[in-house]
Amino acid sequence: MFAQIAARRFAARSSLLIAILLSSFLLATCDSSTPNGTTASCGPDSTSYHLVTAGTLTVATDPSHPPQTFMAPDQPAQYEGSDLDLIREIGKRLCPQTTILKVDFDAIIPGLATPSLGSQHYDLAISAFPITANLQQQVDMLPYFQAGKSLLVLASNPQHITSLASLCGKSVAVQQGTAAFSELSQQDQNTCGSNPIQLLSFTSEDDAVAQLLNGSVAATYQDSPLTDYYAFQNQSKLAPGPLIAPALPEGIVMRKDNPGLEKAVKKALCAMVQDGAYGAILKKWGQESGILPQSQFLC
Known about the structure:
The strands form 3 sheets. A 5-stranded mixed beta sheet has the order 10-9-11-8-12, with helices on both faces. Mean pLDDT is about 85; it is low at about 5-30 and about 35-40. The protein has helices at about 15-25, 80-90, 105-115, 135-140, 180-190, 205-215, 225-235, 260-275, 275-285, and strands at about 30, 55-60, 65, 70, 75-80, 95-100, 125, 140-155, 170-175, 200, 220-225, 240-255. It is elongated. The chain has 9 helices and 12 strands. The protein has 2 domains: about 15-145 and about 250-295, Periplasmic binding protein-like II (D-Maltodextrin-Binding Protein, domain 2); about 150-245, D-Maltodextrin-Binding Protein, domain 2 (3-Layer(aba) Sandwich). By secondary structure, the protein is an alpha/beta fold.
């Protein structure tokens, strides 16, 4: 299904690194949801959007966070996922065309917020960004989803995994190098003491889940969207287990000084919530647990 999953983290960036990353955007690959070449405007208020390209909503994503945003297995230049379906639907309600740019996760915020308005590399970003106080100092974030970390178990839950304590003394598969691996290691020390979890690490999430399917481990541990997606794809064999790290909101990333576009995106998202398109898209990807209550949208 997926070969690699990027860990979600924000590293400190030097000025030189930012300059290098910004220049690299010119080489970013992209896909478009409608044919190229349109010159149509994005509506009567579009002059206040300060778009990178007239008639086009240009969106940055790092396609390494399945099932929210990832490269299509048979078409690496095409990007799929629940985040991208949501933003394409928003784009369809604003402009004739939506273009998706592939950008490294740590480079997305500088490429959006650092250049002057009108010179940014893209108009907004969506890529499983958690809403944090640090990010909100740099950009505006519109809540659209919630995610935590959870366990994936066999459909019948034969080992009765109901909490982190249920895993003490049992084997759990985790993708190596991820935040899930380090977090579970720490929680294991605090919870299980002399009867520790037997952590087994694998190079990909697919490999970790394969260990669960063949009965070699009691559970796997990963971001809750992945848990839900694997369970959705294997409903007769797998089921979501308990949430270990609480679900927190994620946001569409917007510039602070582009209120016209932010207002339009918020209006489109609110309309999607009200007409059912929002929920339908997330259900398509098995992401019902990530649906935010309508009160979170401040429509």
